[in-house]
Design brief:
The complex is a heterodimer of chains A (377) and B (344).
Chain A (H helix, E strand, L loop, with lengths): L7 H10 L5 E2 L12 E2 L17 H14 L11 E6 L5 H8 L5 H6 L4 H10 L5 E4 L5 H14 L5 E8 L3 H9 L23 E9 L9 E10 L12 H14 L8 E3 L6 H15 L7 E3 L2 H4 L6 H15 L1 E2 L15 E2 L5 E2 L4 E8 L3 E9 L3
Parallel strand pairs in A: 3-4, 3-5, 8-9, 8-13, 9-11
Antiparallel strand pairs in A: 1-2, 5-6, 7-14, 10-12, 13-14
Helix pairs in contact in A: 2-5, 6-11, 8-9
Chain B lengths: L1 E4 L2 H5 L9 E11 L2 E2 L8 H5 L4 E2 L16 H16 L4 H4 L4 E7 L5 H17 L11 H11 L11 H10 L6 H13 L6 H12 L5 E5 L2 H16 L5 E8 L5 H6 L8 E2 L1 E10 L3 E4 L6 H10 L6 H11 L6 E7 L2 E7 L1
Parallel strand pairs in B: 4-8, 5-6, 5-7
Antiparallel strand pairs in B: 2-3, 2-9, 7-9, 10-12, 11-12
Helix pairs in contact in B: 3-9, 5-8, 12-13
Classes of the chains: A alpha/beta (377), B alpha/beta (344).
Chain lengths: 377, 344
């Protein structure tokens, strides 16, 4: 579920055709905010059994699950099915409602951070581990990593992993106050970049052990790692220490070298600081190969979907492998020399990456990296 | 769509010639509303609570401008790690750097900052919609204060919280002025970065210079078992040399909300901050989903009350206090799911 469309196909076609998912926010008042635009999903039809909750995050998740179940089958007993989700906001919109005058108990029930994950597990009939990862905007990546750990530890046979976050006034107001939102378009790695825009999304993958069973696979998660900056609550470490640690550790776990990496899906928020730091880290970790590896960011098209972002980007990496096309970075027209990398500018690039690196950063000094491999076609 | 896990690179992954496969809990520190350490716990928390719904934990006094805006959760997290280091005679330099993993857990992630921000936002909206007067007390502040007070949550005495502060401003002089509402709103805005659970772990990482593997799990006691398991995996895989598992639970600011939460039926809710340090050792850890609580889970609840994510760490502290050095089983339950970790 993304602002580009209600399923995986719409997400992918929107990326490669350069669709812009950014629009004026209509679901809640934004008149008093500096910036009232974002990646809002306009056509979310709540499933019948979710209407009563009114929880946007849960509705997004369940809609994504519906698309997932149309493409894959959960072939495990309920006790062996785990749910691992990343989020930056959890059910915070429900908290606002619960605290409002006349707030009802049902709002309080959904106000905890992990309520949407439990709602999804209930919907799927999953009775294995249910974990909610709270590493802010890096949470989707860490969720996939923990999902892999659960499988490796034989704590589950199937893991539904991913991330989600809905747009709400709480987060719009907060980022607006921080002056992080741009009044222009989102331009990752562009010399004119001036900030990010928020978006909403839910992204799920079904993970199993690679035992040759089941249907066709989209790809493999080779390695993952996370690290803290220990530097600042709301800004990345100026030297990108945590991100560098995460990238090196993920490559190490995947047993790949920079020479093996064919594509980088960058966090690429479009903020001046993030993009410069991230580019420097990629140059340091990938060495001479950095200038020859295609790099993109999908946040120009979707906005920053917070807890869902890394999961969406992981899916995009695997789709790029399957389709033989790397989507371009929407909004990037004049690459910043300070972010000197092989950016995919203007139009999609015809290439079939085998191994991809995906990077993520988040509030509180959270960093995560994934190394993915597309299924052989 | 299916993402399968690879097996090729798992086989090809470089292996340590003598991989550390076991772990040991080297130290545990516990702060609760009952006091500092395990010895402060009553024999029966329910009886000691004497009907009180929430047993608060005082806001620690930490020096430094950086802590001025930090919420009570942040301060408690820093205080718990600091207590662990002091009680175990471990220097700060020992844990500084990328060789120490930090995994933070909380179930009640909505603390002072979230409520303060929501309250301030509501005030801002009210002001935008046409000003405030005594006859328009329909703000979230007044309502949440009324609810909290009626249920024994907030009092003037516990004015350490931002909520209490903003509420007092709102109500003490018989209504809000626009000027006053503005100041409350801007103070709430300053707290926005602290509304993310990652701010708590972030403050701890900054304070102790932790730049290694990092995780944040949201949930009650079962999530802490997951966190302990993650720590053992990081250690066993050689990804770190030591791992801190930290849990913080605060309830006071959102007492009214939790009173309505159907999962939080056990009383008393006892605020707590607890931290365990794991290092490579001889004991292997087994992670499972037991149906019944371990003796330690039951004991921790009887002694400490409902401490959500802190409970398994309190259980570990009780085990150590009881002289248990060998195999230990800790379990934790949250929203119908029980997880267990067994060192053998």
């Amino acid at each position: 579920m993304t602002p580009l469309g209600a399923d995986l196909d719409a997400f992918w076609s929107g990326l490669v055709t350069g669709s812009d998912g950014i629009s004026m926010i209509e679901r809640f008042p934004v008149d008093d905010l500096r910036v009232g635009r974002g990646g809002e999903i306009k056509k979310l039809r709540p499933l019948p059994h979710t209407r009563h909750t009114g929880c946007r995050a849960t509705q997004l998740l369940l809609a994504a699950a519906q698309d997932l179940l149309a493409r894959a089958v959960i072939s495990a007993v309920p006790e062996r099915v785990a749910v691992v989700l990343g989020t930056a906001l959890g059910g915070v919109e429900q908290l606002e409602r619960a605290l409002a005058r006349g707030g009802r108990p049902r709002h309080a029930a959904g106000a905890l951070y992990d309520s949407p994950a439990h709602a999804l597990a209930h919907r799927l009939g999953a009775r294995g581990p249910v974990l909610t990862v709270g590493t802010a905007c890096a949470a989707g990546a860490t969720a996939l990593g923990i999902g892999a750990d659960l499988l490796r530890a034989d704590a589950a046979d199937v893991v539904i992993a991913g991330g989600y976050d809905g747009l709400c006034r709480f987060v719009m107001r907060g980022f607006d106050a921080l002056r992080s939102l741009t009044r222009e378009r989102v331009r990752p790695f562009d010399r004119r970049r001036s900030g990010l825009l928020l978006g909403e999304a839910a992204a799920l993958v079904l993970m199993t052990r690679d035992d040759g069973k089941g249907g066709p696979k989209l790809g493999r998660l080779l390695g993952h790692a996370s690290a803290s900056d220990g530097s600042h609550i709301a800004a990345p470490d100026p030297n990108g220490r945590g991100l560098e640690f995460a990238v090196r550790a993920a490559l190490d776990e995947a047993a790949v070298t920079p020479a093996d990496v064919d594509f980088v899906s960058a966090h690429g928020t479009g903020t001046p600081l993030n993009d410069r730091i991230e580019a420097e880290v990629l140059r340091r970790t990938l060495g001479r190969r950095a200038s020859a590896i295609p790099v993109n960011s999908i946040k120009g098209a979707l906005g920053h979907s917070m807890g869902a972002a890394a999961a969406l980007e992981a899916i995009m990496c695997l789709l790029a492998s399957r389709e033989g096309v790397v989507p371009h970075t929407l909004g990037l027209e004049e690459p910043d020399p300070a972010c000197d990398l092989d950016h995919v500018v203007g139009f999609p690039r015809a290439t079939r990456p085998r191994v991809s690196l995906s990077t993520s950063l988040g509030f509180g000094g959270c960093n995560a990296a994934l190394v993915l491999e597309g299924a052989e076609t | 769509m299916t993402v399968s896990l690879e097996s090729r690179s798992a086989a090809a992954r470089p292996t340590n010639p003598t991989p550390p496969t076991g772990t040991t809990v080297e130290a545990v520190a516990v702060l609760t509303g009952w006091g500092h350490g395990i010895r402060a716990l009553p024999a029966d928390a329910a009886r000691a609570a004497a009907g009180r719904a929430v047993i608060p934990l005082l806001r620690p006094v930490l020096e430094g401008e950086r802590f001025r805006r930090a919420t009570r959760e942040c301060l408690l997290g820093v205080a718990a790690v600091d207590a662990l280091l002091r009680e175990s005679n471990i220097g700060r330099d020992t844990i500084r750097g990328s060789a120490t993993a930090l995994i933070y857990v909380t179930g009640a992630a909505y603390g002072a900052s979230n409520q303060a921000f929501v309250v301030a936002e509501s005030l801002r909206q009210t002001r935008t919609e046409g000003g405030l007067s005594e006859k328009r007390p329909g703000s979230v502040v007044a309502e949440s204060m009324r609810q909290a007070s009626s249920e024994g949550g907030l009092t003037e005495k516990r004015a350490g919280s931002v909520v209490a502060e903003s509420t007092r401003q709102a109500s003490s002089e018989g209504g809000l002025t626009e000027k006053r509402a503005g100041s409350v709103a801007s103070s709430g805005t300053l707290h926005f970065p602290y509304t993310a659970p990652s701010a708590m772990a972030g403050e701890v990482a900054i304070e102790f210079g932790l730049t290694g593997p990092y995780g944040i799990l949201i949930g009650g006691a079962a999530a802490t078992i997951d966190a302990l398991w993650q720590a053992t995996r990081l250690l066993a895989g050689g990804r770190c040399e030591r791992a801190l598992v930290l849990a913080v639970e605060t309830f006071e600011e959102c007492a009214a909300l939790y009173a309505r939460g159907r999962w939080l039926v056990r009383r008393p809710l006892v605020e707590a901050a607890a931290c365990a340090l794991l290092v490579p050792g001889a004991l292997r850890a087994r992670y499972d989903a037991p149906r019944a609580p371990s003796m330690l889970e039951t004991l921790a609840r009887v002694r400490a009350g409902e401490t959500l994510a802190c409970a398994p760490l309190i259980a570990l502290a009780l085990a150590r206090d009881g002289g248990t050095a060998g195999s230990v089983s800790v379990t934790g339950e949250w929203r119908g799911r029980r997880a267990g970790l067994h060192w053998q």
